[in-house]
Amino acid sequence: MHESRVKVLGHPLHQMLIPLPFGLLCMSGIFDAIHLWTGAGRWAVIAYYMIVSGMLSGIVAAVPGFLDWLSIPRNTRAWRIGALHAAGNELVLIGYGLSWMMRMPSVDQPWGWAIAVSYGSLAIAACTGWLGGELVDRLGVGVDPGAHLNAPNSLSGPATVV
Predict the structure, then answer these.
(1) Could you report the per-residue pLDDT of 93-146, keeping only the tens digit for each?
(2) In the chain, how long is the greatest CA-to-CA distance?
(3) What's the whole-model pTM score?
(4) Residue 134 contacts by C-beta under 8 Å, 6 or more apart in sequence?
(5) How far is CA 43 from each of CA 32, 39, 49, 103, 154, rounded to the nearest angstrom?
């Protein structure tokens, strides 16, 4: 196991932050779908702001993730998967940034390509999310070395290795 270097109250900060950008970007896709189905511009406007919020929170979540990745020993599978996870998430942010800019001329009636770029970025985000799960669940990155089914509360001090 490889313990996270950036923690808050005993838990890895990156793992606490990533649900927000992922959820916001997923919701932008749902609101885009509602817009496409109904033609109502308000749903596209909501998607637009979900994208902005998802990108900003994604940048914030990337900082502790990058710091944790720097502490993983090179020449390990975890380091390579972490690099792929990070590079993929950069593509996600670039794709959503492109979609966001393409929407600016008419936020309530976005161009079809803007929505397509968002859905492509969401597909990449699903893959990078899987890679993040691989890092934690399979490779033990960000897991407390004393983790076990009866470990004490993270606020009570370090867990003892069983």
Answers:
(1) 999 999 999 999 999 999 999 999 999 999 999 999 999 999 999 999 988 888
(2) 59
(3) 0.90
(4) 81
(5) 6, 8, 10, 13, 41
